[in-house]
């Protein structure tokens, strides 16, 4: 995920767009910001010189701006001397106005008041720009600089002890903003899960500095992944935003292992946690330098839907509790109790209680206009056959939506033949 790209298509989507003056900061300050974003697994767009040809801002850059959640604008001494940068700024502020894009200005060794009043290097730049025949375009640049100077951000780079401290603060700020923007898993759609989510959080004991592995075990469709996603999101939120050095949610480990190979999944997990895309991959053993880095890191890792085929790689990742830094937490979801080692705290996911099962079933099976007493009573009987399994309830409910009462009775009859009568 932590990558930059200049190969864009209509579906491209970035967390962050970086606007900066290349000759001022590309190989210095901006490169350090890029590395900090990469470590935090933030997907960003940074242009290359190939895109900056001609007088007009390229469609690729316009697309990148439009499809980013946040724009970081690094104002430096010669930022305003570039018509490209000024056109980017105009488009970014337009996205802020139209789409609510978040804008984070960074004033790198320049004074915001100089930009606001267009003095110093900013004033010098406009001595040249005034020769451009299009007055409207030049005025837009002036207005945009004034507007940007009043946006909350990093207004005094000199107040930080060094660039490294400033870069880290920028990366932390962006990470928090993205976490606040993220859509939480729709736990409400999985009726009756809140108590189980809270139970998992209590088993994690986040206040302790030990390394802890929690296994979430249960049949397919019982809600293991939904619970793990909710827990991961909640403990990755602002309250815990500085709690972990690295985080990773590896979905569908069973399926991905079959498609890409178990070693690939193992190495991808390590790469995401460390925020390092250039790790040597595919070797049976993991080199000692990687383990040293992991032992220094407090990490949060979720391995979702692990099966027997991943056991050797699982052993290398979580076989020993001292492989990660103090306070690290590993969550494993699985259908097979046997893949969870002796170091794991195991939680068995419970099926929904009957009233919650009926509630979920009715959400899928009945429309607001079609909730007769007869169908509500039938719902209670049919829902019993799902044994509290949320996925089964959803599938069964969806199959009966907008069906006749006769079809409901036929389905109940079929279920009775297969499983025998149930007592409500």
TrEMBL record:
Domain named TIR: residues: 12-178
Pfam families given in the database record: NB-ARC (PF00931), TIR (PF01582)
Keywords annotated in UniProt: NAD
Matching SUPFAM superfamilies: P-loop containing nucleoside triphosphate hydrolases (SSF52540), Toll/Interleukin receptor TIR domain (SSF52200)
Gene3D superfamilies in UniProt: Helical domain of apoptotic protease-activating factors, P-loop containing nucleotide triphosphate hydrolases, Toll/interleukin-1 receptor homology (TIR) domain
Cross-referenced PANTHER family: ADP-RIBOSYL CYCLASE_CYCLIC ADP-RIBOSE HYDROLASE, LEUCINE-RICH REPEAT-CONTAINING PROTEIN
Protein name: TIR domain-containing protein
């Amino acid at each position: 995920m932590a990558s930059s790209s200049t190969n864009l298509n209509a579906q491209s989507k970035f967390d962050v767009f970086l606007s900066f003056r290349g000759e001022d900061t590309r190989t210095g300050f901006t490169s350090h910001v890029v590395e900090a974003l990469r470590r935090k697994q933030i997907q960003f767009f940074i242009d290359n010189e190939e895109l900056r040809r001609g007088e007009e801002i390229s469609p690729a850059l316009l697309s990148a701006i439009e499809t980013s959640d946040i724009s970081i604008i690094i104002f430096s001494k010669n930022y305003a001397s570039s018509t490209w940068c000024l056109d980017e700024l105009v488009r970014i502020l337009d996205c802020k106005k139209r789409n609510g894009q978040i804008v984070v200005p960074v004033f790198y060794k320049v004074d915001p008041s100089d930009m606001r009043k267009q003095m110093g290097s900013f004033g010098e730049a406009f001595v040249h720009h005034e020769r451009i025949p299009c007055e409207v375009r030049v005025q837009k640049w002036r207005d945009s600089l004034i507007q940007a100077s009043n946006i909350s951000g990093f207004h005094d780079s000199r107040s930080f002890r060094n660039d490294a401290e400033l870069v880290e603060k920028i990366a932390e700020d962006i990470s928090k903003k993205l976490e606040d923007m993220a859509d939480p898993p729709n736990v409400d759609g999985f009726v009756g899960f809140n108590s189980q989510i809270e139970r998992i959080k209590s088993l994690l004991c986040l206040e302790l500095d030990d390394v802890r592995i929690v296994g979430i075990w249960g049949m397919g469709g019982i809600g293991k992944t939904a619970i793990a996603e909710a827990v991961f999101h909640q403990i990755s939120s602002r309250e815990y935003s500085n709690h972990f050095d690295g985080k990773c949610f590896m979905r569908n480990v069973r399926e991905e292992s079959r498609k890409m190979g178990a070693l690939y999944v193992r190495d991808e997990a390590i790469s995401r946690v460390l925020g390092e895309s250039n790790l040597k991959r595919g070797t049976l053993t993991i080199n000692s330098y990687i383990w040293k880095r992991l032992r220094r890191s407090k990490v949060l890792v979720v391995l979702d839907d692990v099966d027997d085929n991943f056991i050797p790689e699982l052993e290398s990742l979580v076989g020993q509790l001292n492989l990660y830094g103090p306070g690290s937490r590993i969550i494993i979801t699985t259908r097979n109790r046997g893949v969870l080692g002796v170091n794991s705290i195991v939680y068995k996911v419970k099926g929904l209680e009957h009233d919650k099962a009926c509630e979920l079933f009715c959400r899928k099976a009945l429309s607001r206009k079609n909730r007769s007493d007869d169908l509500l009573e039938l719902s209670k009987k049919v829902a019993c056959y799902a044994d509290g399994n949320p996925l089964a309830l959803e599938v069964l409910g969806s199959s009966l939506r907008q069906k006749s009462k006769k079809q409901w009775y036929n389905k109940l009859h079929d279920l009775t033949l297969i499983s025998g009568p149930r007592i409500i």
